[in-house]
Amino acid sequence: MGNYLNSMSAYTLYSKAVGSPYFADKTDILDQIIPRIETTENYICITRPRRFGKTIMANMITSFLSKGCDARSLFENLKIASSDCYERNINKHNVIFISFNEIPRHCKSYEQYIDRIEGKLIKDLKESYPDVEIDETDAVWDVFKSIYNADNTARFIFVLDEWDYIFHRDFVTDDDRAAYIDFLSNLLKGMPYVSLAYMTGILPIAKYSSGSELNMFLEYTMASEELYSDYFGFTESEVDKLYQKYLTYQSNPKVTREELREWYDGYHTQSGERVYNPRSVVASLTNNNLGNYWTSAGPYDEIYYYIEHNTDAVRDDLARMVSGIAVPAKIKEYAATSMNLTTKDEIFSAMVVYGFLSYEKGCVSIPNRELMDKFSAMLQKEASLGYVYQLAKESEKMLKATLSGDTATMVQILEFAHNTEIPLLNYSSETDLTAVVNLVYLSARDSYRIEREDKAGVGYVDFIFYPELDTKADCIILELKVNHTAEEAVQQIKDKQYALKFAPKLGEKRKYTGRILAVGIAYDKETKKHSCRIEVLS
Prior knowledge:
By secondary structure, the chain is α/β, with parallel strands linked by helices. The chain is built from 19 helices and 15 strands. The strands form four sheets. A five-stranded parallel β-sheet has the order 2-3-4-1-5, covered by helices on one side. The protein has a five-stranded mixed β-sheet with strand order 11-12-13-14-15, sandwiched between helices. α9 packs parallel to α11 (278-287). The radius of gyration is 27 Å and the shape is elongated. 42% of the residues are buried.
């Protein structure tokens, strides 16, 4: 057992994962991967956003196949144990497992980085095949070929995790990136000693291989390929099972199943299946509260990086998405910090690849509450976003005016939004007015959970504001009308008994004890004027 050849590290890490309270068994992916060993379709690359389960899958595959461990006790109660391929493959293969996110101490150059990988790999091969004559000056692929020529049964499965990690390091140049692609090509492409190559990363290979260097890989992305989609991220049924576990573990559960959906769902596979961010779901259930667990792993600047390349091109669509409206886009599988992202489609493609946007049916959108909070924070900080930033700042005044019953200020802010040259504010329908309301109440998301089209009373209300930080704070029911009056909007709230949404269930105490405000906002297309009305329901 060496550093990379038949190492124990992946087995140790996967053992910890299996023993965790919120483990999801996805071992049946092996039933799809193992048949590709020793075939012409034996080069697989999985690309997904960070924290979507790529590393745990790489650890699992290595643990199951590698001769370096005895993993039967680990897998005997998992899905793969019932497969026909179980006995023929468990711990029967030579596996090279490399996690490319490991770098030398004080690493300042690509040469240091790649020399460490080559050196450790050659050392492993020398120790495992001492009878094979190896020249000290040989490249690592020459060493592999020497071993194969001495014993043509010596074949290897390569499991390479985070192949694109080095692309994000400051010391790596464009020439270094090209050299790294050549390294992978020389190591893997057309080599008889490769029985399978399984590689993971965020960035799609196709856009980093300038010619045919890595064209032997079949690439599986969230946006373009259905195969393997179920294995990265949590599906609805998996979250259901994990939530049931949570209810047994927690004596005082504070997270609802619906809240998990609102906060962490919103991604879609090529086949249309809904996918949750796994890190966030597990962290939320473990900590017994909701939070920005995925986005907290990087600053909001990480989102803004892509927008700043062409703020003018994306500004209007960004306003639409923050307003909850999906935007048509032509998504291509490319994105990298080294590329000049100049067009809107390039920028949105990058954001989809990194998981900041979701892509479905030709449109991009902000996937969930966790990401929406991040975008909202960015809009309130970045003055370069122009009118969107101005509206975000006005949103603080809008909430205060609503809570104090200051309808004159509310109308003033809405008129400001309308008089700003914003393409989405055509007000041709309530959808446009809805977009404006989302923007002018942006800061309310800091203290309220805002639901749209929520079922209440005997119908569906446009907006309900649930206090999240203080249950004594005022609740808000907001109804919109185009070519009707604000008084009619408030009357609808009362007639359809939307306030019942805040009524306690039988035998329970009322959760929210503040006032319930009925807020009507209307727009007259003929006069181009807004009106607002607020009534206290209780």
